Amino acid sequence: MGNIYRWEPEDNEFWEQSGKRIAYRNLWISIPSLLSGFAVWLYWGILTVQMINAGYDFKPEELFTLTAIAGLSGATLRIPSSFFIRFCGGRNTIFFTTTLLIIPAFFTGAALKDPTTPLWQYQLLALLSGIGGGNFASSMSNISFFFPKKKQGLALGLNAGLGNFGVTTMQILIPWIMTFAAFGSLSGDPTTLLTDSGTIIGKINAGTTTWVQNGGYVWLTLLLPLAVFSWFGMNNIATKEVTPTLPSFTKAAVMISIMIIIGLFTSAIGLWLILPESANGSGWQVPKDVALILVLLSTLFLLKSLPGAISKSLTHQYRIFKNKHTWIMSVIYTMTFGSFIGFSAAFPLAIQLIFGYKHIIVDGVMTHSTLIPPGRVHLLMRGWLLLLAHSCDLLAAG
After folding, report:
1. Residue 261 domain boundaries
2. Do residues 308 and 387 share a domain?
């Protein structure tokens, strides 16, 4: 375990004798780590719905800020995260970033135990949960180095595909884990549902006790053992192709922390420019597109301003921005993965607040209903599809 100083996956003999075993061990630890990252990143879409059901005193527009904050934070952190493996090593990166997720998971649970917790604390936790979104970039980069080119598609597909399953896992697990005091005294006192809720297996009636805080605590059951597994089971590839100058873990943790702080800072400034004053923003009504561009440019600038090897490497890698295919792939990625993440994060809260979604019983069978005319639902879906279609037209025209 630990550091590897010779890594030749394209050598069939090396691959069969030792490389294959090492590569797949790293992959099987990486997958649940990424799954947990996605879950912590996007659990606000489910938690906010349950906060409404339990009568937490927040306005709908305030709750929507939590999913927006986590979304922008996670997207911004993918920029520095893409450099972690090169400078810090795979095991160092996965262990440290997985461990960092314990912070938002634990304190989200602690905050939810008190229905009077102020909005700004949830917003700070949503910002920190974006670390889980940034982990995607470093995780994919790390796994790609372990496999020969003929196996990279499968490995990356498993890592990304099963990692993305964290969204589904979260949406299934959180409503269920809230139904009982799963963590004993840590779960604390329950609250009472003011409106009906439900899980995939049935309706939960208003008046039932619920432990909303379990939606944060539950991820500790994965993150704590995964931190141990990643430290003792994963490897740093200390070769010139992967991590040519492997630092100590302490130095790697400091480097990662600095780059994460830059991403959190720029995304926080961007969100402050966008959000209304009532939601702890500036109230300046800065257009979202302008704010997002400012976040991107300021993040790149601050990273490039870092001293030493980071600045030199970034100067070299920034040449990709001169390639038109970089921009085309960025648009395609936004249309595909961006749509998946955006819809996954916002849809649970949107269907609750906009569509008036609720559980009803028809002839003894539980089904669902909306309180608005179906045509309005179709109009929203049509709007989303038109947006994607116009993006495709622009790509084709280019």
Report:
1. 2-321
2. no
